[in-house]
Design brief:
alpha/beta, 7-stranded mixed sheet, 2 domains, 15 strands, Rossmann fold, 280 residues
């Protein structure tokens, strides 16, 4: 497989704005026309946090949005970031006019399967996994797509459902699940998906894409395999280089298939569930 790094750009780009979203989350908007116009939902950028060697390793971030509209006229790359360590805390301190070094776009875009109008394409997100799903919906809207999308988002509590209003504003059917019952379904997003699938009935044309924390991804893989659904999962493995050189993000192939290690950054990050091992 050819590496998708062929159209990768590496440069320093200015910060346009930084918006605090609460609960340790923030959005970083960066003026990077070369990257923005070539980025598609599911791809990511590698961000060099500072000018020195600490932190040394670039950080991978799924592209949350490009603006003002997806496509050839896009000039901005927008990232959804949660402060969890020194690297992301340093990014949270950037302000308008500061520069950040980006490398991207990297990875392969999410698939756009054909679905009948009476079926459904489920986009299932948890935590930071909401990021690529929003751009996915923006792309379909810009194409005037009739793809029947249903977005299902989960979090521990309502205040952690970052970005859910954006899907609603796009006019996408959006279901919510919270562990404490503060918004939507009282439980996890996999339970909510199971409810939706039950309402669809047998024989419905169903596919889906999921992106979230590891536990959610494993549960989503299991339910998709059990119900024989067309599903893809976008993985968020640690990616030291982002272009396949370091082999720091590899996963094995399915247990009943030939042993083969695949680099999430190059051959993913989105994989069909049947190609994922029982543990990944």
């Amino acid at each position: 497989m050819k590496m998708p790094v062929e159209k990768c750009h590496v440069d320093e780009y200015p910060i346009l704005r930084q918006e605090d979203l609460g609960e340790g989350w923030f959005r970083l908007d960066i003026e990077a026309p070369e990257i923005a116009r070539e980025t598609r939902a599911g791809q990511f950028v590698q961000v060099r946090v500072g000018p020195g060697d600490d932190p040394l390793i670039r950080r991978p971030f799924s592209v949350f949005d490009v603006g003002p509209e997806p496509g050839e006229e896009a000039t901005e790359v927008r990232l959804l970031i949660q402060k969890v360590g020194p690297g992301t805390t340093a990014l949270a301190q950037l302000r308008e006019g500061d520069k950040v070094r980006l490398m991207g776009p990297l990875g392969h875009p999410m698939p756009v399967p054909e679905i009948s109008t009476d079926g459904a394409l489920f986009l299932v997100g948890g935590g930071i996994g909401v990021a690529p799903l929003y751009l996915y919906c923006r792309e379909r809207k810009s194409e005037n797509s009739e793809l029947p999308i249903k977005v299902l988002l989960g979090a521990r509590r309502e205040s952690l459902l970052i970005g859910h209003q954006g899907f609603i504003d796009l006019g996408v059917e959006t279901g919510l699940a919270t562990d404490d019952g503060s918004a939507g379904h009282h439980g996890n997003v996999i339970e909510l998906l199971d409810q939706y699938l039950g309402e669809m009935g047998p024989g419905a044309d169903i596919a889906g894409i999921g992106c979230g924390p590891h536990g959610m991804n494993v549960a989503l893989r299991d339910i998709a395999i059990e119900k024989e659904l067309r599903f893809w999962i976008s993985l968020e493995n640690y990616m030291p280089c982002g272009f396949g050189a370091c082999f720091g993000c590899v996963i094995s192939g399915p247990e009943d298939g030939p042993l083969r290690y695949r680099r999430v950054c190059v051959e993913g990050p989105c994989f069909p569930v049947e190609e994922l091992p029982a543990t990944f």
